[in-house]
Design goal:
globular, 14 helices, Peroxisomal Thiolase, Chain A, domain 1, alpha/beta, 10-stranded mixed beta sheet
């Protein structure tokens, strides 16, 4: 039975983001259409690297706007990533035409996915070391005191280092006392937050669910680990992120935040909300694996749950991690998914912003594809590594799009599928 028209279906009524080079979903869409990547030379006040050459940075203007979005009394407790999340959520609420004051605080759910590797981080300890050197000598007892007793030069490091910092700051900033959940560990956290929000709405535990995704890879040890694992572009390479291209040589890491406002279709209809898309369903593998059938199994399980098959999908957004091994595996999975000859156009969002931990940039692009009825070309793709997958490259593809399948995978072998479709009604 197809349940998409059911009034308990969950819809996205608002979306916001703060991503490299993108202050809004509209800016992400424009960059995707123009194949204009937002990654820039790597720069950090505390870290110098000849190996990490490119990064998807949140710039100083974006950071200032995010800080301004956080209530003053909460700023000292919030990480930079949590600040980005608050800014993205405020923009999502504007997009949804929703004043939270109109909703009972106990009926507002907050669900977060946080992959903030920056607290504690090498950078926080570098601050103390630099101050010691500026005094002319390295005072080891003094430095130890700062790190252990003064919490690494930041008296609120123990708060900022919590895995639920985003949830805590958001709950206080938006006055929510409702259902909640805080998840970490990148891609699996993204799916867990989204799924928990949908369950909360369907069960009637929440009237509105704020889903906030945020994170940063800008931490020296994390970047070093990714580089050593040959996941990132190498120094002296083209400095272009080329997923699925024959010249691919690794990904480019990044940072940022995305936020969605979710409601049931019935509530959205009742308040004439501007519905952006229906979330048909979510599926993921239950174990970490590199099986060529992983995408197929996720997709089959998802579509069967809503009474549809792959022929109902009009476009696919793939992950595109960019390293030779990861791309090779994903290409095999896409070929296995399309083994029956379905010519479903495949695009990818990752070259635009870089790989942003815990943030479903691919899902945000899928949302825009439904709104604009276009499929953007994959940036930097000139010589596809497979001719069996119907890539969209060089030029955008215009076609009728009613349903988009967003496919996800991460370094650990976690795989997922999320389906978004045009709403069956216009609010």
């Amino acid at each position: 039975m197809n349940t998409m028209d059911n009034c308990t279906s969950v819809v996205i009524t608002g979306a916001g983001c703060l991503l490299p080079g993108c202050d809004s979903p509209a800016e992400l869409w424009q960059r995707a259409l123009e194949q204009r990547c937002a990654t820039v030379p790597y720069a950090d006040d505390m870290v110098r690297s000849e190996l990490i050459t490119r990064f998807g940075h949140i710039n100083t203007q974006q950071s200032a706007a995010a800080l301004d979005a956080v209530p003053f009394k909460l700023r000292r407790y919030a990480t930079a990533a949590s600040q980005w999340g608050i800014k993205a959520t405020k923009d999502a609420l504007v997009s949804a035409n929703l004043e939270l004051a109109s909703v009972d605080a106990e009926r507002v759910g907050v669900f977060t996915a946080q992959a903030d590797y920056c607290y504690p981080a090498v950078q926080s300890f570098m601050t103390g070391i630099r101050q010691q050197y500026e005094q002319g000598e390295l005072d080891i007892p003094g430095l130890t005191h700062e790190f252990l007793n003064a919490r690494g030069m930041d008296s609120f490091l123990s708060i900022k280092g919590l895995s639920n910092n985003m949830l805590a700051i958001a709950s206080l900033a938006f006055g929510s006392r409702g259902d909640c959940g805080a998840y970490v560990q990148n891609a699996s956290a993204t799916l867990a937050a989204l799924r928990s929000a949908m369950i909360s709405l369907k069960r009637g535990d929440s009237d509105v669910a704020l889903v906030i995704f945020t994170g940063s890879y800008n931490e020296a040890l994390t970047l070093a680990e990714l580089f050593q694992a040959q996941q990132l572009t190498s120094a002296g390479a083209s400095n272009e992120f080329r997923p699925f291209d024959q010249a691919r040589d690794g990904g480019i890491a990044g940072e940022g935040a995305i936020a969605f406002v979710l409601e049931t279709a019935a509530r959205a209809r009742a308040r004439s909300a501007p519905v952006l898309a229906t979330i048909d369903g979510i599926s993921n593998t239950t174990r970490f694996e590199r099986d060529p059938s992983a995408y197929r199994r996720c997709t089959d399980r998802l579509l069967q749950s809503i009474g549809l098959d792959l022929d109902s999908v009009d476009a696919i957004v793939a992950r595109g991690l960019g390293s030779k091994d990861d791309d090779e595996q994903e290409i095999q999975q896409l070929e296995h998914l399309l083994v029956d000859g379905q010519a479903i156009p495949v695009t990818c969002a990752s070259p635009i912003t870089g790989l942003v931990p815990a943030c479903p940039v691919d899902l945000l692009l899928a949302l825009q594809m439904l709104q604009h009825q276009q499929i953007p070309a994959i940036a930097n793709l000139t010589r596809p590594a497979s001719t069996r997958v119907p890539w969209v490259y060089r030029q955008p593809h215009t076609k009728a799009i009613a349903r988009v399948l967003s496919l996800g995978r991460c370094y650990s072998g976690f795989h997922s599928a999320v389906s978004l479709s045009l709403p069956s009604f216009i609010g």
